[in-house]
Design goal:
Elements lengths: L12 H9 L3 H15 L7 H14 L10 H22 L20 H17 L4 H11 L4 H8 L3 H24 L1
Helix pairs in contact: 2-3, 2-4, 3-4, 6-7, 6-8
């Protein structure tokens, strides 16, 4: 909409600015509390963001500031409308904005020092049991590195048949370790 409109029922830019600046301290606190209330459940927005958005809309001329209406009433109405628009936009969004993905480490993924020691001991025991069979040791090391299938075979340098035989022996060794773990 902008400031091009010569609507006699709306304030000009200077009048809007003056009206907002002349608000009493009490009315400013009320506006902030109303913004906090209306912005409480808005996705990705706090009350102060909502109030700032409404100020920006009034001062840019995108939102109408009517004459002969107290500034607090105009702000409350505009904040309510803006909050409604944000909620509608959130519902129309293909992404559920109520849930924000954070890049915080999940405490459930952390291993305890005891689990680390146990894993290290199991790995050492597995590699010790494979020391008599270097092909199996190579396969196990490839698996530890996260390689599977053809990538694991290529990393070991073994031929296809030799790799398959070593893989089967490694699988049996790991099954024995798994049984021993379940038994303890």
């Amino acid at each position: 909409m902008g400031w091009d409109s010569q609507d006699p029922g709306r304030l000009s830019y200077q009048e809007v600015r003056e009206s907002l600046l002349q608000m009493s301290e009490v009315d400013m606190r009320r506006a902030e509390r109303i913004a906090d209330f209306l912005g409480h459940r808005l996705p990705g927005m706090r009350g102060e963001d909502l109030l700032q958005e409404v100020y920006t809309q009034f001062l840019s001329g995108d939102r109408r500031f009517p004459r002969d209406v107290p500034a607090l009433v105009v702000l409350k109405t505009a904040m309510r409308s803006a909050a409604s628009n944000v909620r509608k936009a959130g519902r129309a969004s293909p992404v559920d904005a109520r849930y924000q993905v954070e890049t915080v480490e999940d405490p459930g993924d952390r291993r305890t020092p005891e689990a680390e020691v146990l894993a290290r001991e199991e790995l050492e025991a597995l590699l010790t049991s494979c020391s008599g069979d270097p092909d199996v040791a190579l396969v196990v090391m490839a698996w530890i590195d996260g390689l599977k299938g053809e990538a694991a075979r290529e990393s070991t340098g073994l031929g296809e048949m030799v790799f398959d035989a070593a893989r089967k022996r490694a699988t049996r060794k790991l099954a024995g370790f798994e049984r021993a773990r379940e038994g303890s």
